[in-house]
Amino acid sequence: MKDKEIELAGRWGRFVLEGIVDTSRDHLLITDGEGYIRLIGESCKEMYGMDKEDLLGKNVIEMEREKIFSPSVTRMVIDDGEPRTILQETNKGQKLMVSAHPIFAPDGTLEAVVNYSHDLTEILELKRRYESMTEQLKQFESEIEELREKNNEGFVAVSEPMKAIDRLIKKVAVVDSNVLVLGESGVGKNVIAKEIHRNSRRQAGQFVEINCGSIPEGLLESELFGYEAGAFTGAGKSGKPGIIELANEGTLFLDELGELPLTLQAKLLKVIQEKRLQRIGSTTYRDVDFRLIAATNRDLGKMVKEGKFRQDLYFRLNVVPIQVPPLRNRPEDIAALLKVVIRTLNERYGMNKRLDAQTTAALLHYDWPGNVRELENVLERMVVTADEDVIAVAHLPLEIRAVSDHQVNIDPSVSGVSLKEAIEQVEEKWVRYAAERCRTTAEMADLLGISQPSVVRKLQKYRVRQ
pTM for the whole thing? Predict the structure, then answer.
């Protein structure tokens, strides 16, 4: 009976020991005193790409020679009998923190070596990404501080396209050439115009701006050219100078120029050529000296072909064209704009709001179809409405929050898919999202937080083209 109890206890002990090895959060590997593997966790497949059955009975020294892992900490413990902790690399390129401890028999002989491995690949990758992000943030801080010192108008030039525009601004600012600023609505064309004025010899004069698309055609002429007393019904008794006169010795900025009616285009061309104008109802000319900057989101060349815009005026204005790219094509500027706009809003409203990491990440990955104007409006809304000083994801507008989630909405009670299938669906959605937004697999790896080889495997698995 006693022998049977011993046998049962031995089986129970072996069963429990194997259960401990398999369920441990760390990868466990136990060898005998000569380095032959007697017990190993199920995680060996993930660690070494080999099944448990293929590893049992294998010697760690042989595995070291085969570069399955290197170096072997168990061999080191067998050699000197002392516990050791080292950094180990596997044949799959994983970085492991490995600790090995000797177990001695009562007579002092080495009975076994217990080996604990923890995968540091993710941690080391996170460390690398954190250091890279920290370095980028330092660079952004430096560039933003420089921008803050030289400009309070919100002009941000961190991306290469905007740096090129900044250099062009410096060149055209010192002359009086006409400038045509082109780009989608909301990209900040007026900011470009103000930056040119601020750097020009006319900076002491006024910067006068008018949106040609926001004023009814019947009123636009009087706003541009002014009028004499009694020139028309409702005209003021003393008359009024137009914005062209107000821009004398300064800069005139005509926004949304493509909306200017053809009749006024002819009058504007004459003013540009002669540098003089007539108020409505006047018979005399007034000399004007202004720098002209125009902006539009429309294709003026196409409008000229369609007869909707005067060709001679187009050539007069298109002396120095500046094409401002949309915000989605210069993501490097988004991080800087977030800081600049939040700082400006805090100063304006006497607040101390800031974005948390998740909110910042969501804003960085949003496409911003409304460009800088949309970004400014979204941030102002959150700053004004958030009760807390830290702006969280919950404060984001729904359309931005939806983009930031990137998750497949799977209800286990109705989906009819297994957990593995559901995970794969989510994984595929993430991979496709990253492939659409990244130029290389290295960039995808950074975005997804996995290794580059893993990205390549997942692209092949889901047949996604990068």
Answer: 0.57
